[in-house]
Each structure stands twice: as C-alpha cells, then as structure tokens.
Specification:
It is built from 25 helices and 13 strands. By secondary structure, the protein is of the alpha/beta class. Keywords: GTP-binding, Hydrolase, Nucleotide-binding.
C-alpha cells in the first residue's frame, strides 16, 4: 500500500537536524478572532454547502479515542459508552464573550425538509457551566436523538442510525480562545447485525469524505498509538483527498497502552519526524480514562497524569511542542488562524463569483410564474419580443437580432425572392396557349416583333415572353433544360428545399413540382372556340366566346398561385416556429405555446390560401372587363400591327421618298380579303391578348397585396400577428398554467437558487 510505504519511509535525523525536520508551531494564540467568528456565522447558515469554509475536522476509526481527545481539547465532557457513540457530526465552538454560557443547538442538514428544519432549529439548550453540562449532557443527547430521529434503546421509534444533521455546542466565556473543531462519526469496516447496515457504513464514509475533501479543511487524523497506524483506514482515506499530506495532522492517542519497546519506538519515530509522511507531523496525547471522571472537575489532576506519563522514557525524549493536549490545542488554534487568514480573501472572491453565476441561472429561468398574473406577464414579455422580431423581419432590419444570422430566417427577403419568381413564372407559364406575334418591317428591312408595346406598357416584355412567341415549342413536361423551364424549376424546387412539417401537408401537397402545359396551336384553339360557341350574330361574336377563351387561357393560374402561396406559408411557418423556439426558455415552454397556437395558425394560413383561390376564381369566372387604358392601347396597336402585316407583301421601296410605300388599291384589298369568320377570330385573338396581359399583371399584384401581404404577412389577422400580448390576455387560467406554469423541477430549481442567492448575499455581508 502506497501509504504504508510513505509512512515507513525513514529519514535519518541527527540532533543537529531535528529542529529543521519538525516545523515549530506558531507562537501565541490566534490573532483573528473576528474572522473566526464570521466563519462560524457562515457555517451556522449552512453556507459551507456553497462555499467550503476553513475547518478543523477530527476523523478516526471507531474506538480511536476521538471523543476523549476532543473532550481534552475542548473541555466538553462527552459521555462515554457504546450507546453514546457519535451518530452525527458535532461542531464545538469556543467564543470569547463576557458572559459564561454553553449553548446547544442543531444545524439541520441541507437536504432536510422545511418542516424538519423548523423542528430541528427549535431545539436550544442554554447552560451556565461545564459542571451543569456534565450533569445534563446524557439527557441532552437523548433529546437530540429524538429530534434527529436517531434510533436508540431510549428512542426505539427512531428511523435511522446516523444523521447528517450537526449538533452545535458553543462554549462562551471571557477566557475562551476562538477555536472550532468538528467531530464526525468514526468509520467502521464491519456492520453489526441489528445495529448498523452497509448503508450506514457508506453514509458515515460519505459524511467523513464530505468534510475532508475540501482544500480548506485541516484533517485531524486520530490514531490509537497501541495499534499499528498502517492498519488505520482513516489514513488511507485522508491520503486519497490529501495525497501530499499537506493538510493532515496526525494525533496519536492512548500512549499509556503501548507496552512493547518496538511499538514505543515506532510512535517516537512518527512524532519526532523520523518517519514523516505528513507535513503537519504527528502529536502525542493521553486520553482521559474512565477513572478520570472525578478528576475531570479539576483539569489539573488530568494534566498532572499526562505530565507524569510524558516524563517517562521514551516519551520524555520527544519534542515538548509535540506532546500533550496543551501543545495540540495551541497548534490547532494556530492552524485554524492560518487557514482562515489565507482563505478569507478567497472566500469573498468566490462568493461574488458564485453569486453572479446563481443570478445568471435564475435569470435563465425567467421571472416567477406561480400566479396567473405572473404567468400573464411572463408570456406577454415573450410575445412582445416575438412581435419585435417579426417587425424587424418584415422591415429587413436584420441587424436587430442574432436570429437573422441564419439567412433562412430573413423572412421578407425570402418572400420577395419567391414573389419575383412567381411573377416571372406567371408571365412565362401562366397561359395555356401562346399568342401569335405579328411581324412587320423596320427601316432596316429586318423582321421585328410587332408586339413590342414599349410606348403603351412597361417595356419590351414580349420580346422574351413565350405567351407572345409564335415559335414556342409546345408542352412543358417538367424537364428544366431551357431558360423558361429554369424559371419554373426555381419555384417548384423550393418545395424540395423547405422542410414541410406534417401539420402543413394539406397546404403543401401542390408543392410537388406541378406539370404546367403551354400549347402552341393558338389559331386552331381560337377557331374551334369560335365555331363551337357562335350564335346568331351579324359580323361579330358573342361576349361569351371571349369569357370562355380567357378561362381556357388561364387554366394554369390556379396551380401556379397555390404553389406560390404554399411556399409562402411554409416560409412563414418555419420562421414563426424558429423564432418562437429561439425566445422560449426551454423546450417545454416552446412546445406548449406551439401546441395552443397551431390550430389558429393553420386557420390563418387557410384564409390566405382561400383568398388566393378566390382571386383566381374572380379573374377566371367573371366576364372580362377592365378600365385600364393599356387595354385600349394594346388592342389598337395589335390591330395596327395586323393591318401592317396584311400590307407588307404589297409594299415596295420608293426611291423618290426614300421609304417603303404601298398603292392605295392594295390597301382596299388588304382589308377585304378575309371572311367574317377570319375577322372574328383575329378580333378574339387580339382582344384576348390585350386583356390577358392587363389581367395577368392585375392578378399578380392582387395576389401579393391581398393574399400574401394582407392575409399572411402584415394584416391585423395574419399568422405573424397571432402570438401577441392581446393573445396572451385572452387565455383562460388553465391555458395560462399549461403554457407558462412552472414544472416541479423548475420550481425546485428556482427555490434552490433563491436560497443560494440569499445565502451568498448574506455571506458577502458577513465577510465585509
């Protein structure tokens, strides 16, 4: 065993080197009584659970003489007997005070319930002298056993053999020096049937290690001198937490029971430092015996017996500062003062750090949410923050919150991008049949697009618009191998990028890359439409023909629009849930809010989709009509282009005028060489073409303005306005509690942090 080897390691010492091997104790008594008093105050408030405090802890195996040693050091007359063995930690505090008194109280264990703490703290005994304590101590311990629920012969109703509660004995008087020592139950290897269990053994060991593991604890390892110290479990335990032996002080007891010369020599080697495994060394003291009771009323008799023993060989050859209770007591006072002075600045710094950490943890829990008002305030704050982020997202104010670092949450940017694609797709794929371009000659004798309406509309849109391109090759089949197909791909493929949650499936089934058909045979379609719908008209056609033609030409509008709205809904939904998850403190709160919001969110999404469908229905089912002057301008231009097309085969270059010219008689022929049916078909085409362009632009704007912007984004009843302070105020008590009510674990954590903060604030006040 490592410890045995280190303890048996011999350091050869000569008389000239003995003084350097044993560090002499500091002279005089402790000079920081005020600090010690403050440390005791902290310990009374169980702050040692949070901040490890400077402590002297006496540990040892059962029957090591520990209680007898403490009686000699502290003057507290511990009763003797197996029934009265240590069942709990005992804190003995000496405090200088004008009034002589002994105060006995109980410090509840941190894990005690509130009811148990109240009961334990209610116990208090005040005695006026050590003599009175000696007479009543056994009875007092019986009472303490009842309060701590320790099972004994006198308290058979007790529930436990050992307790984590602490018995505090405070001895005050004008001659008392400040000293605090904690006595813990002795560890034992074997259990006793009917008395101790394996659980008791583990509990005691856990109690002992709980006291000795901290670096600010001086371990008083009490070892009987008449037993080989290498067999003492307490040394192995001390070495586990103090491997270098820097804060372990060995106290050898019962030297009067050491008989063999070799055993005495081994003890002397330890005390003299010739086998120094501990930096603080060993002390040798004589225990009080059973026959010392009468003399204990006068400590001089006990001291005389101890002095007589240590004047005998070989004890008389030991350094006097290492033998006797008086020397040990003085050293303990010095040690306690040293570790207190060293730890005091660290305690304040550590208390401030732990206080900041506790407050941060408390802030992370949010404000208390026990009452209905607290829950409302808590949810209202979250809702207000949500609306603040929504406003920033709609205004593209992405520097206002870190959530926008994720580009997928830049809401209005995504919406605008998809809307642009929707507009382009409507322009290039919204029609069922391509309109025919009428071509003329320009001044350079080049064929040009006669549908260029730059002077009457919005630019040269028709130059690259398949709706007006007679050369478009027909049906769109979902393959994206051209410029026009790529436009649709961008919108259709958004559905494969955006995660579609199950709750949105009813809105997003259409996102699965719809097939859009655009047909080339415009002339046959219009001719068939006219022939199948004409009535008794003279030189004209029925308005019903135009309405039917427009309805057929806009077949794709519904599919594209629903696709577009589905993607907008998906983006808004993803944004809503992501921001909600970001601002909620914990998954439970997020899921609770999400669960209650979901039905209303889906209903508002449905309103946006329904309104878009309504706009499609209005445009396609109502009779075509517009007051937009672009319709008249476009129609006039189309008719002019058609007349030009009819004349171009008869035109010629006139050198005299330097321009193309046509003979007057050819003009008459050009306008009379078509039948009434052909004129009607041309009129249907040109009117439909002129109206379609105006209607399509109007429709795209209306879908954006009413279905998207008003119903889904910024309107008073949009999904983004749902989670608001007004929504919170409308929740009933049960819903509030279901969403914002604290779980038991949160309540316990908040309670723990509240107490911890109060304790640390009190600790800083004490440590000033």
């Amino acid at each position: 065993m490592k410890l045995k080897r280190s303890l048996l390691e011999t350091t050869t010492a000569t008389p000239s080197t003995m003084g350097s091997e044993i560090k002499p104790p500091a002279s005089g008594i402790l000079t920081s009584p005020d600090r010690l008093r403050k440390i005791d105050q902290l310990r009374e408030k169980n702050i040692d659970v949070i901040l490890p405090l400077p402590t002297l802890v006496a540990v040892g195996d059962q029957s090591s003489g520990k209680s007898s040693l403490l009686e000699s050091v502290t003057g507290i007359p511990f009763p003797r007997g197996q029934e009265l063995c240590t069942r709990y930690a005992t804190q003995i505090t000496h405090r200088r005070d004008p009034e002589v008194q002994i105060i006995i109280t109980i410090i509840p264990a941190p894990q005690s319930t509130e009811a148990e703490k109240i009961s334990l703290r209610s116990y208090r005994k005040e005695l006026s002298s050590t003599t009175q304590l000696r007479d009543q101590f056994a009875k007092i311990l019986d009472e303490v056993n009842v309060y701590m629920k320790i099972k004994t012969d006198k308290n058979p109703e007790g529930e436990k053999t050992f307790s984590r509660d602490i018995l505090k004995i405070e001895k005050c008087g004008p001659t008392e020096d400040y000293l605090t020592v904690i006595d813990v139950p002795g560890i034992f290897r074997l259990t006793s049937k009917g008395q101790t269990t394996e659980g008791d053994r583990n509990l005691v060991r856990d109690m002992v290690t709980g006291f000795i593991k901290d670096k600010r604890t001086i371990i008083l390892a009490v070892l009987p001198a008449n037993v080989d110290v290498m067999t003492q479990e307490i040394l192995a335990l001390a070495e586990q937490y103090d491997p270098d032996g820097e804060r372990t002080l060995g106290v050898l007891t019962k030297p009067d029971l050491v008989i063999e010369r070799s055993a005495k020599e081994a003890v002397c080697n330890l005390v003299a430092g010739r086998k120094k495994a501990l930096n603080l060394g060993y002390y040798l003291v004589k225990n009080r015996g059973g026959d010392d009771d009468d003399d204990s009323k006068d400590d001089s008799g006990i001291r005389r017996k101890e002095r007589d023993l240590f004047q005998q060989s070989p004890w008389c050859n030991l350094p006097q500062e290492r033998v006797g209770v008086a020397a040990l007591r003085e050293r303990l006072q010095d040690l306690l003062g040293e570790i207190t002075d060293k730890a005091y600045p660290e305690l304040r710094s550590e208390a401030r750090k732990k206080l900041a950490e506790a407050r941060e943890q408390q802030d992370a829990l949010g404000p208390p949410r026990q009452t209905e008002r607290e829950q409302q305030q808590y949810l209202a704050q979250i809702a207000a923050k949500f609306q603040q982020i929504v406003r920033a997202a709609l205004e593209a104010n992405y520097s206002s919150h870190s959530a926008f670092d994720e580009h997928g949450l830049r809401l209005i940017t995504q919406v605008v991008s998809i809307t642009d694609t929707f507009n382009t797709l409507m322009r290039k794929k919204g029609h069922t049949y391509s309109f025919v371009k009428v071509k003329t000659r320009d001044s350079d004798d080049k064929l040009v697009n006669s549908d260029d309406d730059s002077e009457v509309d919005d630019g040269n849109e028709e130059d690259d618009d398949p709706a007006y391109d007679g050369e478009y090759d027909g049906e769109y089949d979902g393959e994206y191998d051209g410029e026009n197909d790529a436009v649709h791909s961008e919108l259709a493929n958004r559905g494969t990028v955006i995660h579609i949650p199950p709750e949105l499936e009813s809105f997003t089934n259409i996102v699965k890359q719809p097939i859009i058909t655009v047909k080339q045979d415009n002339s046959n379609w219009i001719r068939n439409m006219y022939l199948e719908s004409r009535g008794i008209e003279l030189g004209t056609f029925s308005p019903i023909v135009l309405a039917s033609a427009f309805r057929d030409q806009t077949t794709n509008w519904g599919l594209i629009t629903e696709h577009y709205i589905s993607l907008i809904i998906s983006i808004i939904h993803e944004f809503t849930l992501s921001i909600l998850n970001t601002i909620c403190a914990g998954e439970k709160l997020y899921e609770a809010i999400k669960s209650i919001l979901m039905d209303d969110l889906l209903a508002r999404y449905a309103k946006g989709m329904d309104y878009a469908k309504y706009l499609v229905q209005v445009e396609r089912e109502k009779k075509p009509y517009t007051v937009n002057h672009y319709f008249s301008s476009n129609l006039q231009k189309a008719r002019g282009d058609r007349a030009s097309e009819a004349l171009k085969k008869n035109c010629y270059w006139d050198d005299h005028s330097g321009a193309y010219a046509v003979k007057f008689e050819h003009i008459k022929t050009a306008v009379t060489n078509k039948s009434n049916q052909e004129h009607a078909q041309d009129d249907i085409h040109d009117i439909l073409k002129s109206y379609y362009k105006v209607a399509r632009k109007r429709f795209v704007d209306n879908v954006w303005l009413y279905a998207v912007d008003h119903h889904l984004l910024s309107g008073p009843n949009s999904p983004l306005t749902l989670f608001s302070e007004q929504w919170v105020l409308g929740l009933d008590e049960d819903s509030l509690n279901a969403i914002a009510g604290e779980s038991r674990s949160t309540r316990d954590k908040r309670k723990e942090l509240t107490k911890k903060i109060a304790d640390l604030e009190e600790a800083l006040r004490i440590l000033k």
